[in-house]
């Protein structure tokens, strides 16, 4: 007689996943500490702070190779 009682798999706690970030954040996508401050050229994505940007060879957003950077500051108008 195979009267197997399945008990596993029923004690899973609802896992609270990190809320997907849909709102644009001013923080660098790499270090999440500093403000984004350079845009990748040629794709134009503004994603990282200066030190993180210079350490990358490809855009963290679209993976395109970075040919140059343009300094940009969110707080430029403050
Ligand atoms: Zn950074
Ligand atoms: Zn890009």
From TrEMBL:
Location of the RING-type domain: 28-63
Signal peptide: none
Gene Ontology biological process: protein ubiquitination; ubiquitin-dependent protein catabolic process
Keywords: Metal-binding, Zinc, Zinc-finger
UniProt-recorded Gene Ontology molecular function terms: ubiquitin protein ligase activity; zinc ion binding
Cross-referenced PANTHER family: E3 UBIQUITIN-PROTEIN LIGASE RNF26 (PTHR22696:SF1)
Keyword Zinc assigned: yes
Name assigned to this protein: RING-type domain-containing protein
UniProt superkingdom: Eukaryota
Transmembrane segments: none
InterPro entries, sorted: Znf_RING (IPR001841), Znf_RING/FYVE/PHD (IPR013083)
One Pfam family cited in the UniProt record for this chain: zf-C3HC4_3
């Amino acid at each position: 007689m195979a009267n197997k009682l399945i008990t596993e798999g029923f004690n899973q706690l609802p896992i609270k996943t990190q809320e997907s970030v849909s709102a644009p954040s001013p923080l660098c996508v790499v270090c999440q500490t500093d403000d984004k401050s350079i845009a990748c050229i040629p794709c134009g994505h503004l994603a990282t702070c200066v030190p993180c940007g210079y350490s990358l060879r490809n855009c963290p957003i679209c993976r395109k190779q970075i040919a140059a950077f343009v300094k940009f500051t969110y707080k430029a108008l403050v």
